[in-house]
Amino acid sequence: MASFAHHSQSNLNNPLLTEVVLHNILPFLPLNSVLRALATSRDSHSIIVTSPSIRVGDSLSPDRVRLSRVLRRFERLAHVHVENAQLLVKLEDFRAFADAIPHVVNLRLTKLRLNRMTGGPFVDSFKRTFSNLRVLSLHGSMFPTSEVLTNMVSYINGKTLTSISLAGCRTLEDQHVKILLAKCSLLIRLHLPDCTRLVSPSLIHNLVEEVNMSQCTSLESLPNIHLPRVQHMSLQWCRKLSSRAVEQVVRTSSSLKFLNVGACVSVKQLHLESGRLLETVQLGMCESIRELRVGSCPELKHLHVGLCAGA
């Protein structure tokens, strides 16, 4: 027991172990805990300020002035997640925040709320940041006009971005999706749930592996779709989506493994053909479906049809 205790204590005093632990737990700590460690622990200070990641929680977020001041204490933040981005409301807030994270490559902002007065300043303040990003996530972000969103898309560097999430972006239109896919040649994940202005977007990309367009309640069709590497496709609660669109997804996506079209109530007849790698199809709550045929899907193992009245 004594030797075990001695060995454990030696590991805890190992600077490399301390660095590994801090870098892995720091993004999940409340910001106040991180600041307390900065102020009270001389040994941890140098490790913390060089940490590549920080997550500013919702309930413990500082005010907007303090947020930027705190971020400046870190030397090379590459991953920043602010859960309460509604703190940022003025031009000077956006500029101070963008200036505090010049090296960020993974930016996640939740609850960002923009209006006609602040949408443009937000995009202009972050245009340099957008050009360096690999991951951009703006959950629940409200862009006031299509023009503002078009400007943001134009600043994104298509040679670096691999993942984008614009969940709940109610001003996103078909044209924006087309531009994003055309310019972002390395994109792997496209998450656009609850984007209610999408109607008939073209989905053409050679590398995308994951698409989430659930709750896009105006989505009717996918007139041009070419996603040879997509494996995971979520279209649940797209209440206007046609049977033809779903069939086209399966027929043209040769790598597709998972498809969720649950609660797509406009789907009445569904013929799934040539899904050679398709393993799971979720059709739950497709209450209007009356006919379902599956052919040439040799890997299909899970077919969920719960609450499909006519199936």
Main traits of this protein?
eleven-stranded parallel sheet; single chain; alpha/beta
- DSSP summary: helix tally: 11
H/E series, N to C?
HHHHEHEHEHHEHEHEEEEEHEEEEE
Estimated helix fraction:
25-40%
Strand order of the largest sheet: 1-2-3-4-5-6-8-10-11-13-15
Global geometry = elongated
What would you report as the Rg, rounded to the nearest angstrom?
23 Å
Topology, number of strands: 15
Derived structural class: alpha/beta
Q: Approximately how much beta-strand content do the residues carry?
A: 15-25%
- Low-pLDDT stretches are 1-17
Distance between the termini: 64 Å
Characterize the biggest β-sheet: 11 strands, parallel
- Averaged pLDDT, please? 83
Brief characterization of the structure:
Helices cover 32% and strands 17% of the residues. The chain is α/β, with parallel strands linked by helices and 311 residues long.
Walk me through what this model shows.
The structure is a single chain. The protein has 311 residues and is an alpha/beta fold. 32% of the residues lie in helices and 17% in strands. It has helices at 2-12, 15-25, 31-40, 42-49, 64-71, 91-100, 119-125, 127-130, 146-155, 174-183, 243-252, and strands at residues 53-56, 79-82, 106-110, 135-139, 163-165, 189-191, 203-204, 210-212, 225-226, 232-234, 258-260, 269-273, 280-282, 291-295, 302-304. The strands form 3 sheets. It has an 11-stranded parallel β-sheet, with no helix packed on it. Strands 7-9 form a two-stranded parallel ribbon. Helix 11 links the parallel strand 10 and strand 11 (258-260). Helix 3 (31-40) packs across helix 4 (42-49), helix 5 (64-71) packs parallel to helix 6 (91-100) and helix 7 runs parallel beside helix 9 (146-155). The chain is elongated, with a radius of gyration of 23 Å. The model is unreliable at 1-17 (pLDDT under 50).
